[in-house]
Write a structure and sequence with these properties.
The protein is of the alpha/beta class. The protein contains twelve helices and seven strands.
C-alpha cells in the first residue's frame, strides 16, 4: 500500500474518530453539568448537527450517560497508551486509573438492565435477589462499578468481588468506601480459577472478556460450585457479531484485554453445559453493546 493510500485510509477513519470524540465531549458536558467555551460549543453543535445526533444527546437523561461515556473514554485512553510508544501486550496489565475506571464504569449500566430485561427471564432469580440473605459474586470485579450498582439496585444484597489485579482492587476499595457499601461489598485479591466457595451465591457474574481462554472452563466450574442450588451464572464475553469489521475489532479487543472470545453462541453454551449447569441459554445484551451474555443454572438437586 502506498503512502498516499495509507493517508486516505487515515483521513477517512480520522473523521469517525473525531466525531466520536465530539460526542464524548458533548456527553461529558451534559453529564457533569458544565459549560463549554461558547465558540467551542458553536462548532461542537455543528458537528452534532452533521451527525444527526444533537437532538438525541440533548434529550438524554444525564444520570444514565455514565456507561456510554465510559465506553468512549476507555477506548480512547487505551489507544492513547498504546500509541504513546508503550508496547502492546496480550493480557490485562494496566495500572492507569483513567483506563481502569473507564472500563469499569462501562458495566455500571448493567444492573438496571438485569432487573428489567434479564432477571425476569431466569426462573426464580428476582425473588432470590430480593431475599434478605441474597448474595452476588462478581468475578473480575475490576474497580467495583458493577458491584456498587448491584448493591444499589438490591438493598439487601451482599456482594463478593474477586480480581487478581491489585491496581484495580486499590481503586475498587475506594469506590466501595465512597459509595458507603463497605459492610455489604467484600473484595478479594483472587483469580476465578482459585475460587473455593461452595453453595454461597444466588447469582454470579463472570467477566469472560478479561479471562484468558485456557482458564475460562476452570473458572466456570469453580463458580458453578460456588452457587447455591438453583443459582444462576451469567458469562459475559466479547461478541464478534456478523459484520466483518466488527468481528475483527472484537478479536483485536480480546487480544488486547487478554480475555475469551467465544466465536459463536454455541461455544458459550457448550462451556456452561460442560461445567454441569442446566437451563443454558443466550440472553440479550445491552443494546449496541459488543458484549454477549450466556446464562446457566446450578441444578436444584
Amino acid at each position: 500500500m502506498s503512502i498516499d493510500a495509507i493517508r486516505a485510509v487515515v483521513a477517512r477513519l480520522g473523521s469517525s474518530a473525531g466525531a466520536l470524540a465530539a460526542i464524548g465531549i458533548a456527553l461529558h458536558a451534559l453529564e457533569s453539568g458544565t459549560s463549554l467555551d461558547p465558540q467551542i460549543q458553536v462548532q461542537l453543535d455543528d458537528v452534532l448537527d452533521a451527525l444527526g445526533a444533537r437532538d438525541v444527546i440533548l434529550d438524554a437523561d444525564p444520570a444514565r450517560l455514565g456507561p456510554v461515556l465510559a465506553g468512549i473514554r476507555g477506548d480512547f485512553f487505551l489507544a492513547a497508551k498504546l500509541l504513546s510508544g508503550k508496547p502492546g501486550q496480550r493480557g490485562w496489565a494496566h495500572a492507569e486509573t483513567e483506563i481502569l475506571q473507564a472500563f469499569g464504569d462501562v458495566s455500571a449500566g448493567f444492573p438496571a438492565f438485569l432487573r428489567s430485561a434479564i432477571a425476569p427471564r431466569l426462573d426464580g432469580l428476582l425473588a432470590r435477589l430480593e431475599a434478605p440473605e441474597a448474595s452476588f459474586l462478581d468475578v473480575g470485579v475490576g474497580v467495583a462499578a458493577l458491584s456498587v450498582e448491584m448493591a444499589r439496585q438490591w438493598p439487601s444484597l451482599h456482594v463478593v468481588g474477586i480480581d487478581p489485579w491489585p491496581a484495580s482492587l486499590m481503586i475498587a476499595r475506594e469506590n466501595v468506601r465512597k459509595a458507603g457499601f463497605t459492610t455489604r461489598i467484600a473484595l478479594r485479591e483472587q483469580a476465578g480459577e482459585n475460587l473455593s466457595d461452595i453453595d454461597e451465591f444466588d447469582l454470579a457474574w463472570v467477566a469472560g472478556a478479561f479471562i484468558p481462554e485456557p482458564e475460562i472452563s476452570k473458572v466456570i466450574e469453580r463458580v458453578r460450585r460456588a452457587l447455591r442450588p438453583g443459582g444462576w451464572l451469567l458469562l459475559a464475553m466479547a461478541s464478534p457479531g456478523d459484520d466483518p469489521l466488527a468481528a475483527a475489532l472484537a478479536r483485536f479487543r480480546a487480544a488486547l484485554w487478554g480475555g475469551s472470545l467465544l466465536s459463536a453462541s454455541g461455544d458459550a453454551e457448550d462451556v456452561l453445559t460442560r461445567s454441569g449447569l442446566v437451563a443454558v441459554r443466550m440472553l440479550p445484551g445491552l443494546p449496541h453493546s459488543p458484549i454477549a451474555i450466556a446464562a446457566g443454572r446450578k441444578s436444584l438437586e
